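Anyone? Bumping this.
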Amino acid sequence: MAVYAGIDLGSRSVKLALLNEKEELELHKFDTISFYRKYGKLTNGQLKVEFEKLGLKKEFDFLVSTGYGWQVINVQRVSGSKNIPEIKAHIYGAVFLTGLVDFTLLDLGGQDSKVAKVRNKTLIDFETNDRCAASTGRYLENMAVVLGISLEELSCYYENPVELSSTCAIFGETELIGKLVEGNSIAELAAGVNYTIFRRIKPLLLKLLSPVIVFTGGVAHNQAIKKIIERELNVKVVVPDNPQYAGAIGCAVSAKQEYLKDI
Amino acid sequence: MIEMQKKVGITTTVPIEVIYAANMVPVDLNNLFIKSDEPQKLIEEAELRGYPRNICAWIKGIYAVMLKQRDIDTLIVVTQGDCSNTHALMETLELEGIRVIPFAYSFDRDYDLLKLQLDKLICALGTTWEAVKKVKAQLDEVREIVWKLDELTWRENCISGWDNHLYQVSCSDFNGNPEKFKQTVEEYILNVDKKQELKNSLRLGYIGVPPIFCDLYQYLEARGARVVYNEVQRQFTMPFDTKDIVEQYRLYTYPYGIFYRLKDIKEQIKLRKLDGIIHYVQSFCYRQIEDLIIRREIELPIITLEGDRPGKLDARTKMRIDAFLEMLR
């Protein structure tokens, strides 16, 4: 049975999705730095990934890659391989995972945010965050550490948010500590942090709004942000299973198309 | 013995006819900065001298390159029609003993005010209207050849976006030697293979100040998209049919408001049959605000690229370009 592989070389983690003919998925995640250190080797300007070392049981027939890494490096041919732009990969993934064809994609990853308007499975327009890590997973991670709570706990709070004016992922810490000293509860502070994310992405979403938003990327695990978007924008927010794998899954879907095209 | 001609620094396009008529040589400091071996170092130098980190890199580059250029002691600075950062640039250079001659484009493209400014510039450099008119006729001959190069880019499709950028952008000072520049362009055009049509599926327009990235055009072409319209660079070639120098600098769009620029951009979008627009903005530049006007006024798909420091395109910008090209297809 043919197996198609998709690999998303993200800023925080590398995601690998294997898709078979029955449309069954197998998902793997690796820390980005150790992935490159252990399995990647640059040969003639191309990234050669030593897939045999990853301990995968299956061989695959076609590989499609995307992500920050691929700009600088090409994944060396397995049997057949290709790179696709990140936004395209995420849209393929979102369509595969939700079965929707018209929606606005919101992808909040480790270091960037993307919003794309999709009609009939095709990209119509898109926006990305400006050169800043606020409104990304990195910001949430930092804030959870400051508050001394887990990311899971952080994602529970959305009522009575504390107003946080600084949107900088680094300076936000200082402001948060100040608010903590003023006597605000952890719940109110955590809600404030989640609202900060919403405020950063709100202009992007408003420009490209649809009645349904498909929310992907690691930050999509945050239930509070999902609820805030639904409440504030009066839209339906769909978070697929394994939202952080949407890019890798989209690549695997693309790999299948490429493989079948070649036959 | 040939006497060394005096060099005059410029920070953006000014009526260089006056400089040449005064038997002086204009030096576009932007080109000097970006073509230097290590433009990054120049920015660092400006910052070490106290320029803030969050200020336009072009301003810092011009400042540092000017301080290094010991053979230039005079600078013409545009005080209306460029940005307010230029004012502080002028002042910080004045502090270092540089002679500064201000030049102001009239805000509402008023003919008489512009004529008066030209008059003052002519006086400041010690030349005459007659000499200026003569130089204009000479420079127009050079410009005509560059217009042809531009036409070969979009009509005949045999010139790359980078070459189109490079030759047009050089018209701000003609590299200090119009005659030699003319020869270079003529030779270039002669050697262009006119039968070899460049096969790029997407035709792009580039609007905004010239990019601080060094590999944008090449990156686009490697992905099957070519810039066939460089807005501001083309303006540097003064593509206007007029013998009147005041009128020429009144028709020149760059120093005037965005709506006047948009008129020109819209015409060219139609003429050149563009598929999409790249709006380049410099980090910390007031023109970033005008992006919202451009997006409202232009109906083609637009990608806004922001550049800060000189160098290659960063991974994030590449990702955005890829998605944009994908969308246009």
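Late reply, but here is one note on the structure posted above: Chain A has a mean pLDDT of 87.
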